[in-house]
Amino acid sequence: MTASRLGATPDGAQDTASAAVAVQQMFDEIAPRYDFLNHVLSAGIDRVWWRRAAKTFDAILRRPESNVLDLCCGTGDMTAALLERRPANGAAITAVDFSHNMIERGRVKLAGEPVNFIEADALHLPFTNASQDLVVSAFGFRNLADYEAGLREIRRVLRPGGEMGILDFGEPEGFIGDAYRFYFRRILPRIGAALSGSGGAYAYLPRSVERFPKPQAMCTLMRDAGFADAAWTPYLFGVAGLFRGRAD
How does DSSP classify residue 88? Predict the structure, then answer.
């Protein structure tokens, strides 16, 4: 593994390929309890964050012809939040994830809804250049093996003027940050391991947040990848937040 790579690094991963395989296997393993644990461990506020992020892109979502991509969609919770803001005659949303088990649960959960689920790698998307109007990723981009490559791939598939949003965890400062880090590092992994049967996945979670670029650094990466107006909006004092940019 090269020191310069910015991306998810699960235990034992030596390079981009092995990191991607480890993350894929991890999410396949926890898929059966994933939704339940998300809601329990976040005290249900994750639903508020998904809807708030989706509302940010109303101008695009309300246009029936807009092509909308939910990247690293998991079991489809962000997809559902985006669907709530689409007109009845809107084009179907495309939802992509490389975890087979996550995708299958999403298909069941959103059966009958205008969603096209595709099992694919976020670093090698099966879409033509400049084909999407909006790309959103909720709590999934952080798990990519190469953040810079992921941003470049999002930029590739976006039309000029198209928008992207990345909703993910952050690390607050001050007293709130101290309390959050104690919960995230000491309490959450134990609860997650007990309820999911996968200690590794919930020990990985706080480490992945620590490794994720801070807002200023992430906005710099976004600008370097070809995004204008790169900005970060904190949610709940910075426990989570939305990165937003526009394709030049």
Answer: T
What is the residue-wise DSSP string for 20-68?
Answer: HHHHHHHHHHHHHHHHHHHHHHTTTHHHHHHHHHHHHTHHHHTSTT--E
The span from the CA of 23 to the CA of 148, in Å, is 17
Structure confidence by residue, pLDDT tens digits, 121-179: 999 999 999 999 999 999 999 999 999 999 999 999 999 999 999 999 998 888 888 88
Architecture of domain 16-173+201-247: 3-Layer(aba) Sandwich (3.40)
Element (H, E) at 210: helix 199-211
Spatial distance between the Cα atoms of 140 and 74, rounded to a whole number of angstroms = 8
Beta bridge partners of 19: none
Tens of pLDDT along 93-131?
999 999 999 999 999 999 999 999 999 999 999 999 999
Q: How close are the terminal C-alpha atoms of the chain, in Å?
A: 32
Which pLDDT belongs to residue 3? 43
User: What are the residue boundaries of the structural domains of the chain, listed by start?
Assistant: 16-173+201-247
Average pLDDT, the chain: 91
Which residues are registered as beta bridge partners of 118?
Answer: 96
Q: How many Å apart are CA 54 and CA 131, to the nearest integer?
A: 20
